Amino acid sequence: MYNFTPPVTRLIEELRKIPGIGRKSAQRIAFYLLRSGKQDAVNLANAIIDAANNTFFCSQCYNITAVEPCEICIADREKTKICVVEEPFNIYSIEKTNLYKGMYHVLHGHLSPIRGIGPDELKIPGLIKRMEKGEVEEVIIAVSPTTEGNATAHYLSDILRKFKVKISRFALGLPIGADLDYVDSVTIARALEGRTEL
Amino acid sequence: MYNFTPPVTRLIEELRKIPGIGRKSAQRIAFYLLRSGKQDAVNLANAIIDAANNTFFCSQCYNITAVEPCEICIADREKTKICVVEEPFNIYSIEKTNLYKGMYHVLHGHLSPIRGIGPDELKIPGLIKRMEKGEVEEVIIAVSPTTEGNATAHYLSDILRKFKVKISRFALGLPIGADLDYVDSVTIARALEGRTEL
């Protein structure tokens, strides 16, 4: 059976390890990178090495950063609020709204007993340590409204209760621009329960 | 406006250059690679560098190869047939059928006046040179049945006619497992025209 030349096969195998990239996508990416010129390939490899060597987790919020502490932890922001997110790129989505001026804490995942991810696999001990300093007044839990996200939110609100701070979670409801016909009934139920007075 | 730390931003920009990878996918891939450990990132970068440094186009068929001539050109195959494909990974798809034992020729694209890709941007001169040796008896044009693929096929059949060889093209018709209800009418028309007697 014909196979690609070994360096290409190895490249395809490495690309396939990335979640969301299947065999066909990996092939297309590999051959795109190996077109004549190859400058894109070299640039990409250098960017990967540079990012791998020069970034690390912020010791306070566990965001990915090239400086310690990270740009957000060191900025002049409201130290009394912590927004808990699952992944570093969630910070970017929230910052885009320009509405939140507090701190962040990145869990790096969510609780998932089925995949063996418990509280100790997440950055929850680091969050507890921040809470113990007593500066925080509100924790906003911004995990995804999925089964695993809900479990994570409940676990967090349980263990944070002893700090006597306000604990909130992102509102559930209709996304902007949604067509009611196409919104699932659980979302509609939540939108109804959380209706706001006009 | 908050942005990712510079090495991460650069990595995301490099990933976005890959066709089919948008902003969100690039972010997810970048953060996947920069999780704790980073071994996947280093392996991927090394695989890219290795493939970029150790592969080149076969001087005969323009397949991507690590040896000259490539594994297929050097193998004991029917030298009288050349199958013309657009991309190196098309060879893999055809080899999987185990039905074709001839040679290949990779064009590295298709004619596309709108993007400024004419015959000289493709590996057509190399194909002409192979034809001039007089060994070839059949050219099978295996480009995609798209507008640009069709233009490429017509151009090729025109310039190859003077070599007085058999020129064929992959059959058009229903894909296996297709539901007639969901097949477009051009495909149905081609399937009807090319119907085979039972």
Fraction of residues in helix of chain A:
40-55%
Structural class of chain A, by secondary structure, is alpha/beta
Outline type of chain A: globular
Main beta sheet strand tally, sense and closure of chain A = 4 strands, parallel
- How far apart lie the N and C ends of chain A? 68 Å
Question: Regarding CATH, which class of the largest domain in chain A?
Answer: Alpha Beta
Low-confidence stretches of chain A: none
Strand content of chain A: 5-15%
Spatial arrangement of strands, main beta sheet of chain A: 4-3-5-6
CA-based gyration radius of chain A: 21 Å
The CATH architecture classification of the largest domain in chain A is 3-Layer(aba) Sandwich
Mean pLDDT of chain A: 91
- Sketch the topology of chain A as an H/E string, one letter per element: HHHEEHEHEHEHEH
Number of domains of chain A: 2
Number of helices of chain A: 8
Query: Total number of β-strand segments of chain A?
Result: 6
In quaternary terms, these chains amount to homodimer
Secondary structure topology:
The structure is a homodimer of 198-residue chains.
Chain A: H1 6-16, H2 23-33, H3 39-54, E1 56-57, E2 64-65, H4 71-74, E3 78-85, H5 88-95, E4 102-106, H6 124-132, E5 138-141, H7 147-160, E6 166-169, H8 185-193
Parallel strand pairs in A: 3-4, 3-5, 5-6
Antiparallel strand pairs in A: 1-2
